[in-house]
Amino acid sequence: MLLLLQEEDTTIGISPRLRVLSRDLSSSLRVAAVVAVAVSVVQGGMKRRDINGDSINKAQLKDFWDQISDQSFDSRLKTVFDMVDKDADGRLAEEEIK
Fold first, then answer.
1. CATH code for the domain in which residue 58 is found
2. 31: how many CB neighbours lie within 10 A of its CB?
3. CB 32 within 8 A of CB 47
4. Is the pLDDT of residue 15 over 80?
5. Rounded Cα–Cα distance for residues 15 and 41 (Å)
6. What is the residue range of 91's domain?
7. Of 33, 35, 56, 83, which cross-links 44 as Cys (Cβ 3.0–4.6 Å)?
8. Number of domains, the chain
9. Where do the H-state alpha helices sit in 3-98?
């Protein structure tokens, strides 16, 4: 519901609460996008390392973290490749890129 503050039949702006809600929603969407990318990175790494299941152990998490935090071009390329290579066959098919 959009609430407008009115003074003498003149709209002076959006209510402060609506501004806060809008800002909170924007922040939540950014967090959701970051989480989606993180999940994609971990899933890609799990496939490449042939890890099955819904969880990873501490050593595997450290391995993922080391790869993600490595600033080299090769490491970044490997991370993106892992995310895109859905079937983990080591090749990118046209369907995987679309």
1. 1.10.238.10
2. 10
3. no
4. no
5. 40
6. 4-97
7. 83
8. 1
9. 16-48, 58-69, 73-84, 94-97
